[in-house]
Design goal:
single chain, binds S-adenosylmethionine, globular, 20% strand, Rossmann fold, 48% helix, alpha/beta
Length: 312
């Protein structure tokens, strides 16, 4: 019988070692699946997993909650909502989509998850329902077992997640086979008139605002085709994209401007950096754009969102 030469023995043992390490790594990656990971400190997670400035629920309501509540209606019409399902809302904020689901599908169970504890607190107080359960968590590491939900939804949140592909993979992981996975994000650059009025005016006055405008209008998934491509990349089937629209109605310039003096959302995040003189200059310029030379009073602006759905 031919004797094995030492260098062949070495190659063989190397192969076994490499194979063993590969299997070990696979097992370790299974053990470290996000769902089983020990919960991380929420401040650390907020610093790394989101680009959204969240401060308090009431501020968010003035800034965006009142509009997301309105957008929930066409979004649910697009995703469909049979009664009796288990539904997940990823990035639930102050809970408008969860509440809309609970109101429409009375036998469904709804879980809302958001990274901002203050929004989750607000949701528990203001959008509670026996069928809804809220928790603090990261879209990129959802604390639910695989194949838990018949419908996994996300409204106006994924473009603020630092790793949107990871969040989409998580949405797909927790969806049952055949479940609907759907999301909507603002068409920030092309279809968000009220926000454009603010950022275009600010950018004309201040180059730093121009940088923030660029960041705001190039957020992931917000440009044409990006949401659709992300759904296909994420392995979802029968992917369909559409555009949803609402109108944003303001009763007066004050109603329009006040949210920018708060602590929630990208516009307020910029205004917070200004000293008083610059803030007043900006207010005057934005007011002129709002009034268009007419009396103060109601104004109505269109807002478009991209929406996508696919089958897990
Ligand atoms: C514009 S708000 C939308 C909230 C809610 N879906 C609505 O329609 O009113 C964006 C939300 O995404 C949440 N968010 C951002 N990054 C997140 C992440 N990595 N995990 C979970 N939630 C996140 C924010 O905390 C915020 O509540």
């Amino acid at each position: 019988m031919a004797r094995l030469r030492p260098h062949l023995l070495c190659t063989l043992s190397d192969k076994i070692r490499v194979r063993t390490e590969w299997i070990g790594a696979r097992l370790a990656s299974c053990r470290l699946s996000p769902y089983k990971e020990a919960p991380r400190d929420i401040n650390t997670v907020m610093a790394t997993s989101t680009t959204f400035l969240a401060s308090d629920g009431a501020g968010y309501e003035r800034n965006m909650g009142r509009w997301s509540k309105r957008l929930a209606t066409p979004f649910l019409a697009f995703t469909r909502l049979p009664d009796g399902e288990r539904v997940l809302d990823v990035g639930c904020g102050t809970g408008h989509l969860c509440a809309a689901i609970a109101a429409r599908a009375s036998h469904s169970r709804v879980d809302g998850v958001d990274i901002a504890p203050m929004y989750v607190d607000y949701a528990r107080l203001h959008n509670h329902h026996p069928m809804i359960s809220y928790s603090v968590g990261d879209a990129c590491a959802l604390a639910f077992p695989d194949a838990s939900f018949e419908r996994v939804l996300s409204l106006l949140a994924l473009h603020f997640v630092t790793q949107p592909d990871q969040a989409i993979a998580e949405m797909r992981r927790v969806a049952k086979p055949g479940a609907c996975v759907a999301a909507a994000v603002w068409d920030a650059r092309g279809g968000f008139v009220a926000n454009r009025l603010f950022f275009d005016t600010a950018a004309a006055l201040d180059p730093r605002a121009s940088e923030r405008r660029a960041k705001n209008y190039t957020r992931p998934l917000t440009r044409p085709g990006e949401l659709l491509a992300a759904w296909k990349r994420g392995g979802l089937r029968e992917v369909v994209e559409t555009q949803l629209h609402i109108r944003m109605e303001f009763s007066s310039f004050d109603d329009y401007w006040t949210p920018y003096l708060g602590n929630d959302g990208p516009g307020a995040e910029y205004v917070r950096t200004l000293e008083e003189g610059s803030k007043q200059r900006l207010r005057k310029a934005v007011q002129a754009a709002y009034l268009d030379g007419e009396e103060d009073g109601p104004r109505s602006y269109v807002a478009l969102a991209w929406a996508v759905k696919g089958v897990a």
